[in-house]
């Protein structure tokens, strides 16, 4: 492993990082990813100009990601490096954040407060929510949970197991830049191309392991349905990684996701995901439980592997 840590120690650090995230959540002040986002905005504002935009975007990616990653490697290799690995994983994980941003939507829908549910949903998705009904908001919340389970949790855990805390940090920084620059709009189509392709590459294996986790943890009788949805529906999605994750997750839950969504005033017909009844408010809670159980599965498997290779 690139971290140089023994497998058992790495697994214990992974469990510690997950526990820190669940207990403490994201740092309320001086969050490294918040500061990184602000820096990325300044870099993009200065470099995203006419001419050589793809190369400018590549330079911007390196300027944003490589110094922070190099600092993380240096700190992890020094005295107290074991603690640094756990802290970097804590900073990079977003499991508790997923719960804090999505379960209030579920609660607002249960209380039939559409105004609050629309406001909360608008904070986590890019689609227009002003006129969504309860089913549309539930669909958006469930989709966000399933997809971001990979981006905020499983991709981070995967790269932690490969390269320790610095690997987890590099992945989250790259993923953050994709979320900021990876749009197919006139402003970002060229400048954000490198950020989007790097994120696709880093996410390729984690996304498929996430999809497999959703298949394995589907309720009884849902495993085959989740597998079939993954194989049949994922290729229709433009994102090579979001497709497998959301299709398998929707199949595991036995609900219909995808379909029409409004972006900047225009209705976009997206490919279908899953099968069954349209999403209901309770499906947000079910999606969270699926992501949480999958996290426990990853931690358990890492510990089992570590113990087996420690004996």
Automatic annotation (TrEMBL):
What is the first-listed, main subcellular location in coarse terms?
Answer: membrane
Q: Is DNA-binding one of the keywords UniProt gives this record? A: no
Pathway(s) annotated for this protein in UniProt: Cofactor biosynthesis; adenosylcobalamin biosynthesis
How this chain sits in the membrane, per its record, is: Multi-pass membrane protein
What keywords does the record list, in alphabetical order? Cell membrane, Cobalamin biosynthesis, Membrane, Transmembrane, Transmembrane helix
Spans through the membrane: 71-91, 290-308
Q: Mind telling me which InterPro entries this protein's record contains?
A: Cobalamin_biosynth_CobD/CbiB (IPR004485)
Q: Which Pfam families match?
A: CobD_Cbib
The domain of life for this entry's organism is Bacteria
Localization annotation: Cell membrane
Give the similarity note. Answer: Belongs to the CobD/CbiB family.
* HAMAP family (alphabetical): CobD_CbiB
- Its biological purpose: Converts cobyric acid to cobinamide by the addition of aminopropanol on the F carboxylic group.
What name does UniProt use for this protein? Cobalamin biosynthesis protein CobD
Give the species this sequence originates from. Massilia suwonensis
């Amino acid at each position: 492993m690139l971290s140089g840590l023994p497998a058992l120690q790495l697994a214990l650090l992974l469990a510690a990082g997950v526990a820190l995230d669940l207990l403490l959540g994201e740092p309320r002040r001086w969050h490294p990813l918040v500061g990184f986002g602000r820096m990325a905005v300044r870099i993009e504002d200065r470099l995203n100009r006419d001419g050589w935009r793809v190369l400018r975007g590549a330079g911007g990616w390196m300027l944003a990601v490589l110094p922070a990653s190099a600092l993380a490697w240096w700190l992890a290799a020094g005295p107290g490096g074991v603690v640094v690995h756990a802290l970097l994983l804590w900073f990079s994980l977003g499991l508790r954040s997923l719960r804090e941003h999505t379960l209030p939507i579920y609660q607002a829908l249960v209380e039939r407060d559409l105004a609050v549910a629309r406001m909360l949903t608008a904070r986590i998705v890019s689609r227009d929510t002003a006129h969504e009904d309860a089913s549309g908001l539930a669909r958006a919340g469930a989709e966000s949970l399933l997809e971001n389970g990979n981006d905020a949790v499983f991709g981070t855990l995967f790269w932690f197991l490969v390269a320790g805390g610095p690997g987890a940090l590099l992945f989250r920084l790259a993923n953050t830049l994709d979320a900021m620059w990876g749009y197919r709009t006139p402003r970002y189509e060229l400048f954000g191309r490198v950020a989007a392709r790097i994120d696709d590459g880093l996410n390729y294996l984690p996304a498929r392991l996430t999809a497999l986790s959703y298949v394995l943890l589907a309720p009884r009788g849902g495993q085959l349905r989740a597998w079939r949805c993954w194989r049949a529906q994922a290729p229709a999605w433009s994102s090579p990684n979001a497709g497998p994750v959301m299709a398998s997750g929707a199949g595991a839950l036995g609900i219909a996701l995808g379909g029409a969504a409004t972006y900047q005033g225009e209705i976009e017909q997206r490919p279908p995901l899953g099968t069954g009844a349209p999403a209901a408010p309770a499906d947000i809670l079910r999606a969270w439980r699926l992501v949480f159980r999958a996290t426990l599965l990853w931690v358990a498997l890492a510990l089992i592997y570590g113990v087996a290779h420690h004996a």
